[in-house]
Amino acid sequence: MKLTIAVHVLGILIAVMPLSAQEPGYANPVTPTDTVLLAKLQGLVRGFGGDVGVYVRHLPSNASAAIRADEVFPTASMIKVPLLLTLYDRVERGLLDLDTVVPYPDTLKYQYEEITDVVGYLEPGEKLPLWELAFLMVALSDNVASLWIQALVGGGARVNEWLAANGFARTRVNSRTPGREADRTEFGWGQTTPREIAAALVAIREGRAVSAAASEEMYRVLTKSYWNKEALSQLPPTVQAASKQGSVDRSRSEVLLVNAPSGDYVLAIITKNQTDTSYEPENEGHRLIRSISRAVYEHFNPTDPWRPRR
User: Fold this and answer.
1) Looking at domain 18-73+193-300, which of 3.40.50.300, 3.40.710.10, 3.40.50.1820, 3.30.450.150 is its CATH number?
2) For 173-237, where are the alpha helices, taking DSSP H only?
3) Does the pTM exceed 0.85?
């Protein structure tokens, strides 16, 4: 009788545990190394003017390749993936509603530089629905929309609480987050590792992020990137990919989960300490991202005849 009660109680505890307590957080599992792919990647990063981290995993076979995949790098705009996850967590808990129309606060008004920061053109008091802010944050990488969402979910500290509770040991928001000023100086808005940011996309793809329904909605948004000139440009236009890009002076980054013919794979590429700080298409970081993206796609899909036009 006591054993039956104990088993029943254990079952209840498991049922109410957060996802991070049932699985190793959102972490990618230990997987066999694809030595052929790893050699290709090592050749591509050799001689790069800066530091490079790469993580690749082919989901059906679990084969992977990693270069400095557990080292901390700047996220730049990839921090918007954790912001999206935290937003949907709040929605799932009933604390926020995506259909709520929210007024633009004058505290967010700042000098925007990207034409895609469309929210920055609003006047304080003008309104947008929360779901539209989420779309602008991810698809256009709108910085003003992102800062707005960061504030709406409770600030960077609240995002970091969610990350810690869900097994992200190194991924954190630094900007506008008390106590993380030194990290912001070193890494900027946010920080992550190639393995962890890749794990976030895998969890969303597999329906394990927040909830199955939330994961589906987030995945749809992540497949609508305006920024398709780098890693995405090396994929056939008929192949869907969920992605997020990042770019600051000394860092270029992209994470993508590709629904390829041979099966899904996730790829994260992040640089730091780049000597090339230009914002031209031929920036060394951009060229590296394109070359790695193409090499990984061809590795997993060797019979696909499509080739990039440029």
Assistant:
1) 3.40.710.10
2) 181-187, 194-205, 212-222
3) yes
